[in-house]
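agent> fetching stored inputs for the iron/sulfur cluster docking request
agent> found them:
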Amino acid sequence: MDAAYCVAATHCSEVCGRCPAWVAITRCRGLRGAPLARPPRQERLGIKWSPAQLALRWVLDHPEPAVTLSGMNRMDHVNENIEVACATEPGSMTGHEQAMVDAIRERYREKTLVECTACGYCMPCRQGVNIPRVFSLYNDMSVFDAERARMFYRRVTNPDEWASHCVECGVCEEHCPQGISIMERLAEAHEALLAEDRDG
Ligand code: SF4
Ligand code: SF4
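agent> prediction call returned; pasting tokens
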């Protein structure tokens, strides 16, 4: 479960405690890689925690996870996480921190272009279109770094998985629990992801 991304970004923002993903290991890509750990800047949060620390603190604030994993590749990451872990017990986040999380979540939601949860129920596409990946990169264009997302689509994603292979059979839309107009949004995403960078 992309827990901290859920906090700040898009889906499953309410943790009801019944989700089996919380039973064993929760913080799988909790910061969704580096992007979420960067913006917004710490000083703009108005709290002592960095964005990465706030995300970890949010996970640890919930009583449900038995184990929380965090990727660390530098000593200061280790120190930061220890600081948060020592200071955080379930229910220990302040009202201001909760409000900050809500504000960040709302900001990411506003920037999300397609409410795709990457559940994969629309897959496989018989034409080979990697629907969740296309939407993920399309959202990354808006939420994080447009040119980086475009680069990942053009150069890293297998062209056989590009949205341009969609023949509009409509099968995927019958399975999407989010009710996304997949065919229409795929065409839009493909055009945007192949467009030249206009964002400087
Ligand atoms: S509508 Fe397009 S993306 Fe969806 S299953 Fe058919 S070919 Fe694949
Ligand atoms: S079924 Fe809908 S929400 Fe799930 S991956 Fe496909 S497009 Fe996204």
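agent> quick read of the result: The pocket of iron/sulfur cluster (ligand 2) is lined by residues 116-122, 131-132, 135, 175-176, 178, 180, 182 (CB under 6 Å).
agent> awaiting further instructions
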